[in-house]
Amino acid sequence: MAATVIKAEKLPEIQLEYMKLIAEIMEIRKRGETPLAYIRTYGCQQNVADSEKIKGMLKQSGFDFTDTPDDADFILFNTCAVREHAEDRVFGNVGALKNLKRKHPQILIALCGCMMEQEHIANRIYNSFPFVGLVFGTHSLQHFPELMYNSLVNGKRVFERGNDDNKLYEGFPVRRDGDFKGWLPIMYGCNNFCTYCIVPYVRGRERSRDRDIILGEARQIIEQGYKDITLLGQNVNSYGKTLEQPVSFAQLLSEIDSMDGDYWLRFMTSHPKDCSKELIDVIANGAHISKHLHLPFQSGSDRILKAMNRHYDRKKYLDIIRYAKEKIDGLSLTSDIIVGFPGETYEDFKETLSLIREVEFTSLFTFIYSPRKGTPAAEMDDPIPAAEKSKWFQELLDVQEEIAAKRCSSMVGQTERVLIESVKEKTGELNARTSGNIIVELPGKADLIGTFQNVKITKARNWILKGELI
Questions:
Q1: Are 142 and 165 in contact (CB under 8 A)?
Q2: In 3-state terms, what secondary structure has residue 330?
Q3: Contact, 108 vs 100, CB < 8 A?
Q4: What is the CATH number of the domain that holds 453?
Q5: Domain boundary among 160, 189, 210
Q6: For residue 427, is the peptide bond before it cis, meaning its omega torsion is within 30 degrees of 0?
Q7: What tens digit of pLDDT does each residue of 94-119 get?
Q8: What's the domain range around 432?
Q9: Other CB atoms closer than 10 Å to residue 226's CB: what's the count?
Q10: 3-state secondary structure of 106
């Protein structure tokens, strides 16, 4: 299908006016000295970036933030529809707010995100959780202040979903969660329609942000001192196809990489069908680009890949991997795998195991197939019992654990540049991460958090390295 030209619109001025009105209302409704918001985000980094926009709008509406819903005047769950487990957690946690709403009726409880773009989910929320006052989907983010205002003023439940106008909206205020790790969306939506995936139905079709806007935001994040910057999109390799003047993702990545500063540049997620040699060459020659490639292959069986509508086969995937290993020194490879896709046999699964052994991934994100209502795969015959799929799943984990242990052991004695990210509560050790996205634990002081340090690797566990500062 031909790419749609998407026009970027500025956040309407009327939404800024609604933020001012919300601030006036909350001065009356607040329970404490300052109105407080509690935001809980489920799912992918794109959801995290969306929540940062929502927090930016709330901040401009006079809110501060709290880590507990008990203190909040406004509670929002930003939901994920990719896995059934994530949906179940949302329902359970929303249900737990019933007593809090009864105790403090003025609290506004809201749900947004991918789950809310599904009609059957929105209907369930409406019928089973009457204390939820505001529900909006991914396509209504630009209307959030207006929707919140209407709910506060009218005292009626506000539900809005399914209003995708195929436009991009810019000018959101953003309140970032971290001080040194930053998320930078470059596009939204997906055109691939993998048969198991709900994302194109809840996020819409591909829409690329304007190149100059992205470059401006990237420059700003770097100047603000962010050390680990991740470019986001459902398929970043498709970036630029909807622009009036197309720009490839490799070109965009190269332009950001050329900016002065001390930072790492990452991206996710890449689709193998669009992963080009040009992109790999840019990574190989990059000054700031992480030598880490996350390239989901999902299955090693050509038969299953076709049933998944992935648009590549095993040979094409391995050709990409071989070229990447040849060009990028010290490359760290990670991937996603679905075990037990409808119709998958043990013979198909063994082809996945053989691909894992051939590539030797640093780590894998592995899932047992979860049917998503509204996707083609949910209607496919699925004769393999769940218990059998669980056995396959464990077999896969055992193979990958052996590979990861071997890779980590090979790094003992090496010096790695790492970014210190946090302190472990139980041990007081520092958690750090390499450019290749491998976790390193080491002794040190908390004032090193957010800094790059050189670390000598002293010990290896299956998934984690131990080290000491140099």
A1: no
A2: coil
A3: no
A4: 2.40.50.140
A5: 160
A6: no
A7: 999 999 999 999 999 999 999 999 99
A8: 415-469
A9: 23
A10: coil
Q: 327: which residues sit within 8 A by CB, 6+ positions away? A: 280, 281, 283, 284
Residue partners of 143: CB distance under 8 A and separation at least 6: 15, 136, 160
Region 172-188: mean pLDDT is 95
410: left (phi over 0), alpha (psi -120 to 50) or beta: alpha
pLDDT in tens, 227-242: 999 999 999 999 999 8
Letter for the amino acid at 440?
Answer: V
Q: What element of type H or E holds 151? A: helix 144-154
Count Cβ atoms below 10 Å from residue 360 Cβ, excluding itself: 15
Q: What is the pLDDT of residues 324-374, one digit of tens each?
A: 999 999 999 999 999 999 999 999 999 999 999 999 999 999 999 999 999
**C-alpha distances in angstroms, 468 versus 22, 208, 270, 438?**
50, 42, 33, 15
Cβ pair 101, 69 in contact under 8 A: no
Show the CA angle centred on residue 115, arms to residues 112 and 118, nearest 5°: 115
What integer pLDDT is reported at residue 6 of this predicted model?
58
| Whether residue 187 sits in one domain with residue 264 | yes
Exposed, middle or buried by CB within 10 Å (0-12, 13-18, 19+), for 283? Answer: buried
